[in-house]
Amino acid sequence: MWDIVDQYVDEMMPGIKKTALDYLNFAVYQDGEHKCIYDEERIVIILKKIGFSSVALSSYSKSIDEDLDTHRKYSFYVEAVK
Fold first, then answer.
1. CB 3.0-4.6 Å disulfide test: which of 31, 51, 55, 62 passes with 47?
2. pTM higher than 0.70, yes or no?
């Protein structure tokens, strides 16, 4: 995995020494795939604040996400009712 990050950072900033923040930025935003990130606590607070009456953490379901080990390991799931 680090080879991918090294290659990405080198392409974006050729000749510049990589720092820990470069690796963190890649991990968080994944080359523009993610616009922002949330933790479980923050997403529950936001959903309640914008009017969802019922918000609860839930478990993985094949009907809502791909069956990938990385998704199961690094994702969390929330069900909310407006």
1. 55
2. no
